[in-house]
Write a structure and sequence with these properties.
257 residues; mainly alpha; 10 helices
């Protein structure tokens, strides 16, 4: 299996789950006499077909253990969670909202942003495969196409050219010629760059408040009073009056359109 083929299989993880319907290893547990219970795993009694199914299931379980991290890196989650982390740090609210809330919000926003892509994967790959209208490799190829198109829409040409050069590949004439293992890291650093740009814009108004409060406290001779303690209420009221969550979340979602 080539690296490109392996990557496409990971991207089409939703399609892989149907392998479970092909069969499962027979596990027999029981106690014999007074001995401790024993577990027997039947690998198909030497049948190559049964062994193949068992190996596929073992591979599937291995992929499932790392699939969440892999799928997150190929979606809008990177940009969303980094921007939300910048927002919390700029406001100076420490652990408010807590990490669980930020991660949950980022996940649901990711589901919302990626829903058109998942619908295409379901309609073009998963459902035809379940209806036995295409083979497994064809389903993998069809499932990878919408995700690749999403990443290529967001990636910078400069970042893409960087990894093409590092991989020592010839300059591609079309996007379809770029291997998936090149698209993914280019997409990730492009998302981080965009997230840092948005984070800089978020920081500016809160930085102005910090500077104003620090200058006022200095002029009043209150140098022992932490400026962050005084500026925090002003940051909160500014964020609420400006309907900050509406603006930040709306801008994030629209940045993927």
């Amino acid at each position: 299996m080539t690296a490109c083929g392996a990557t496409r299989r990971l991207m089409a993880l939703a399609v892989l789950t149907v392998i479970l319907a092909a069969g499962t290893p027979e596990v027999v547990a029981g106690a014999q006499g007074g001995n401790a219970p024993s577990v027997t795993i039947d690998l198909g009694n030497g049948d190559p077909g049964g062994m193949s199914v068992v190996l596929q299931i073992v591979l599937l379980l291995t992929v499932l253990s790392v699939a969440p991290a892999i799928l997150i890196m190929m979606t809008s989650f990177i940009r969303v969670v980094v921007v939300l982390a910048f927002l919390r740090q700029a406001m100076g609210t420490l652990q408010t909202p807590p990490n669980q809330v930020l991660i949950g919000l980022a996940l649901f926003l990711t589901f919302f942003i990626m829903s058109p892509v998942w619908e295409r994967v379901n309609a073009e790959a998963l459902q035809p495969y379940l209806a036995q209208k295409m083979t497994q490799p064809q389903a993998f190829e069809r499932a990878a196409t919408p995700i690749r198109e999403f990443m290529l829409r967001q990636v910078r040409e400069k970042d893409l050219a960087l990894f093409v050069d590092i991989a020592k590949l010839p300059p591609p004439k079309e996007a379809s010629e770029i291997p998936t293992q090149v698209v993914i890291p280019a997409f990730m650093i492009s998302e981080l760059r965009t997230a840092f740009q948005i984070g800089f814009l978020i920081y500016l108004p809160f930085l102005v408040i910090d500077l104003v409060v620090a200058s006022v406290l200095m002029s009043m001779g209150m140098m022992m009073l932490p400026p962050a303690m005084v500026s925090l209420p002003f940051k909160l009221i500014l964020f609420v009056l400006a309907d900050g969550w509406y603006l930040v979340v709306g801008s994030l979602v629209k940045s993927f359109v």
